Amino acid sequence: MPGTIGILTGGGDAPGLNAVIRAVVTTAIGQYGMRVIGIEHGFEGLLGETQTHELTTADVRGLLPRGGTILGTRNRGRFVDRDSNGRAIRVDALYHEATENLRRLGIDALVVLGGEGTLAIAQEFGRLGIPVVGVPKTIDNDLACTELTFGFITALDIATDALDRLHTTAESHDRVMILEVMGRNTGWIALHSGIAGGADVILIPEIPFTMQSVADRIRARDEAGSNFSIIVAAEGAIETGHDLIYQDTGDPLHAPRLGGIGSYCQRNLEALTGKETRTVVLGHLQRGGRPNAFDRMLATNYGTCAVRAVVEGKQSVMVALQAGDVITVPIYQAIANVKTVPPNGQLVRTARDTGISFGAPDEAQHHRPNSKSGETVSACG
Ligand code: F6P
Questions:
Q1: Is the CB of 74 under 6 A from ligand 1?
Q2: Of ligand 1's atoms, which has the minimum distance to the CA of residue 183?
Q3: Dist. CA 75–CA 91, nearest whole Å
Q4: How far is CA 155 from the centre of its chain?
Q5: Is 133 helix (H, G, I), strand (E, B) or coil?
Q6: Is residue 108 annotated as part of the catalytic site, yes or no?
Q7: Where in the chain is the domain with CATH 3.40.50.450?
Q8: Higher pLDDT, 24 or 92
Q9: Is the full-model pTM beyond 0.85?
Q10: Among the atoms of ligand 1, which is closest to the Cα of residue 182?
Q11: Which helix (H) or strand (E) is 348 found in, with range?
């Protein structure tokens, strides 16, 4: 059995990171008598002088509700470089330096809390012979092989609360209100919060939209006496025939950052409908602060199961939620493809059946019973 576990958090933070750290520390020390070393600032803490410190049960007291990560995190570290074609390449010298440091620190196995980018680095450490167990973290819920990543349900609560609040102001002013949410190139946050928050239009990357279809829905609502509309737009939503919309960071060398779909829709919809429209970009509010009860529970379950996987000698696996149970899956499977919203899946159909539009040009078809586009949808239950 490994005597010492190293633990690190990588990529964007998500509510529940500290709850996982707490679960790993209490289980590893309390149940198995192991030592736990916290590695700071993601994998970066393994380079140079190294930034690590031993974690005791006293260090993790009170961590369950605390947002962020006590270990710090890095979004784009030095471990992945890009070739001239933009393809990710492994920087071998850094991996060599980091594995040497792991040996020097006496770390026998790594527990890595991260999304697809961080887990891809973890997979490389696995290839170099370091036992690695991943824990699926991201508010985007876009990791394959797991039904849920921790942080996602808290982000949903925040987005849904925002939609509730936008409803009352939209209705008071007869306005269109657009909520831009995160999610990278997937629409999980937009779809789930849009249904929970009673949006009229949901725009997601998996279903390209046209501005005309969205404007038609707003007009139809006005004609039916509802003089306001609520739109939730995923940051990666795509208008048919157009490109993704990125923020202008003012730095051409900076990796492109999604953002701006909300104000883009606002300009175009105001022109098409003549209605006053406002945009709210929810941004990092979706990631900051306390995890909700579900994420605290899921994070704790993931953390303890990750330690058990280390003890059982599992290598290069990720803990994952499938059919209500936490199991382990190979990391390479989890990072092979991003998990996207099935455009003909049950939840999209549920949204359409309750009158929500996705702004698709063929939207009307989806409302006809036994329509062709509805045939691929599995029955409920
Ligand atoms: O992956 C999590 C996420 O919050 C995405 O939804 C978003 O596109 C991105 O990170 C934002 O990253 P940053 O913190 O670098 O602005």
A1: no
A2: 6
A3: 17
A4: 9
A5: strand
A6: no
A7: 4-150+291-334
A8: 24
A9: yes
A10: 6
A11: helix 346-353
Report which of 307, 269, 270, 249 is spatially closest to residue 34, judged by C-alpha positions: 307
Listed in sequence order, the residues at least 6 apart from 28 whose beta carbon sits closer than 8 Å to its beta carbon are 5, 34, 35, 36, 307, 310
Under 8 Å between Cβ of 236 and 244: yes
For residues 318-346, average pLDDT: 97
CA gap 359, 377 in Å, rounded: 19
In the chain, CATH 3.40.50.460 sits at: 155-287+342-367
| Residue whose structure tokens are 């696995």 | 126
- The CATH architecture of the domain made up of 155-287+342-367 is 3-Layer(aba) Sandwich (3.40)
Strand 132-136 vs strand 317-322: parallel, antiparallel, or unpaired? parallel
Q: Pick the more confident residue, 160 or 253.
A: 160
Annotated active-site residue in 140, 142, 157, 200? 140
Lookup result for tokens 């933070």: 13
> What CATH number belongs to 4-150+291-334?
3.40.50.450
Ligand 1 neighbour 12 (Cβ under 6 A): yes
Q: pLDDT confidence of 113, banded at 50, 70, 90?
A: very high
User: How far is the C-alpha of 381 from the C-alpha of 378, rounded, in Å?
Assistant: 9
Query: Which atom of ligand 1 is closest in space to residue 259's alpha carbon?
Result: 8
Residue 2 CA to ligand 1 center (angstroms) comes to 34
**Strand 201-203 vs strand 317-322: parallel, antiparallel, or unpaired?**
unpaired
The residues, ordered by sequence, that sit 6+ positions from 220 with a Cβ below 8 Å of its Cβ are none
- Decide: 378 in ligand 1 pocket, CB within 6 A: no
Contact between residue 159 and residue 232 where contact means Cβ atoms under 8 Å apart: yes
Q: Which of 152, 182, 281, 340 to mutate to test the pocket of ligand 1 (most atoms within 8 A of CB)?
A: 182
Best residue among 69, 76, 140 to mutate for probing ligand 1's pocket (most ligand atoms within 8 Å of CB) is: 140
